[in-house]
């Protein structure tokens, strides 16, 4: 009986710690220089955010297991048909075991024309660490001179 009580309390404590850590705010990049992210795209090519200097770039960090991310991807397929004024890069922060699921979501949401990246490193991804991300999805709009113009958790920031 005491064991069950202890286990239940421990589980609730861990859940509270998790929820508190997930609700902490992301680092505010607005007005700052964008970090020099490096990633491998869906074609296996090694890319850097630096490759897109001189262009407006939208960077979307998401994961296949995140419900809000999947909704954002559905919205993104409609968004890109109307807005082609800038380059879009999606970075999935999933574990390697989710590669097929990631590829299916990219195809299902008709994101083939974008620079789609799969980290395979889960939330220990370089992009997550460099951008100091605490919650996903995250969307960043970067100016041609490499300044973060806007950031948020939905596509509305790309309309600025």
Write the layout of secondary structure elements.
Layout (H helix, E strand, L loop, with lengths): L1 H21 L15 E3 L5 E3 L8 E6 L4 H16 L4 E9 L3 H10 L6 E6 L5 H6 L6 E5 L5 E5 L8
Parallel strand pairs: 3-4, 4-5
Antiparallel strand pairs: 1-2, 3-6, 6-7
3D architecture notes:
This protein has 160 residues and is α/β, with parallel strands linked by helices. It is 33% helix and 23% strand. The strands form two sheets. A five-stranded mixed sheet has the order 5-4-3-6-7. The longest helix has 21 residues.
Question: Which features characterize this protein?
Answer:
five-stranded mixed beta sheet; two-stranded antiparallel sheet; alpha/beta; 160 residues; 4 helices; 23% strand
Tell me the number of helical segments per DSSP (H or I, 4 or more residues long): 4
Amino-to-carboxy terminus distance: 58 Å
- Helix-strand makeup class: alpha/beta
What's the SSE pattern?
A: HEEEHEHEHEE
Mean pLDDT: 78
Rg, alpha carbons: 17 Å
Number of strands: 7
What is the overall shape? globular
Largest sheet: 5 strands, mixed
Query: How is the largest sheet built, in terms of strand order?
Result: 5-4-3-6-7
> Residue share in helices?
25-40%
- Low-pLDDT parts are 5-24
Strand content: 15-25%
Summarize the structure.
This protein is an alpha/beta fold and 160 residues long. The chain contains four helices and seven strands, in the order αβββαβαβαββ. 33% of the residues lie in helices and 23% in strands.
């Amino acid at each position: 009986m005491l064991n069950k009580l202890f286990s239940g309390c421990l589980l609730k404590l861990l859940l509270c710690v998790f929820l508190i850590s997930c609700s902490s705010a992301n680092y505010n990049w607005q007005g700052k220089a964008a970090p020099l992210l490096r990633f491998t795209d869906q074609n296996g090519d090694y890319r850097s955010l630096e490759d897109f200097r001189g262009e407006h770039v939208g960077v979307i960090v998401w994961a296949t297991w995140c419900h809000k991310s999947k909704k954002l991807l559905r919205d993104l397929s409609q968004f890109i048909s109307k807005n082609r004024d800038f380059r879009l890069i999606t970075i999935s922060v999933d574990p390697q075991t989710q590669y097929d699921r990631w590829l299916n979501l990219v195809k299902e949401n008709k994101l083939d024309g974008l620079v789609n990246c799969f980290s395979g490193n889960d939330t220990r991804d370089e992009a997550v660490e460099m951008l100091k991300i605490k919650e996903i999805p995250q969307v960043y709009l970067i100016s041609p001179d490499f300044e973060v113009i806007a950031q948020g958790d939905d596509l509305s920031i790309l309309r600025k």
